[in-house]
Design goal:
Elements lengths: L5 E5 L2 E5 L5 H8 L3 E6 L5 H4 L2 H8 L3 E2 L8 E4 L2 E7 L8 E5 L4 E5 L2 E2 L2 E2 L9 H12 L6 E4 L5 E2 H7 L4
Parallel strand pairs: 2-3, 3-4, 8-11
Antiparallel strand pairs: 1-2, 5-6, 6-7, 7-8, 9-10, 11-12
């Protein structure tokens, strides 16, 4: 199953978003950087396949629903805000990098679509509420989903039938 794992790099330091699988590829990609943390948009199997190995080898904090609050965090050179957005799963969160105008949204929003709500922990009404909250955002962010190509909030506001 294809899933997007992102490695954010700044000043030879990095954060890893949703390490879904292929630990050896991730390890090769981060070998020249100091890993500061792992960001999980939710705990579905396809987003955490390499998590245990990374935690074992890197010994870094994991930012996930059960361990965080909705607030701003600064980790090394990275500053991001965590927002809960249940719907796809009870533990769905997004990571908002305001200065860079980037959001890592997991399976919350896709290009012209949204995440499934028929899996365990999914709830269509909660998804609608999360989307309504996202629609209040006035800035245009680049959205990095857990699957498929990136998109923008502005594009989704116009083209996404669920919006």
């Amino acid at each position: 199953m294809e899933e997007n794992c992102y490695i954010l790099v700044q000043d030879n330091q990095c954060l890893i978003v949703d390490p879904g699988d292929e630990y050896s590829k991730i390890k090769d990609a981060i070998q020249d950087f100091s890993v500061l943390g792992i960001l999980l948009t939710h705990r579905h199997f396809d987003h955490i396949g390499a998590l245990d190995e990374l935690v074992r080898d890197c010994d870094v904090p994991v930012f996930e629903y059960s361990e965080v609050e909705e607030k701003e965090y600064t980790v090394g050179p990275f500053t991001f805000h965590i927002v809960f957005n249940p719907g796809h799963s009870k533990d769905s969160i997004r990571f908002v990098f305001g200065k860079e105008k980037k959001m890592f949204v997991g399976d919350f929003v896709f290009l012209n679509s949204i995440g499934r709500t028929d899996l365990e922990g999914g709830d269509y009404q909660e998804m609608k509420n999360s989307i309504e909250e996202l629609l209040l955002e006035k800035e245009n962010y680049v959205l990095y989903p857990g699957h498929g190509p990136k998109t923008t909030l502005e594009f989704e506001k116009i083209m996404n039938p669920y919006f």
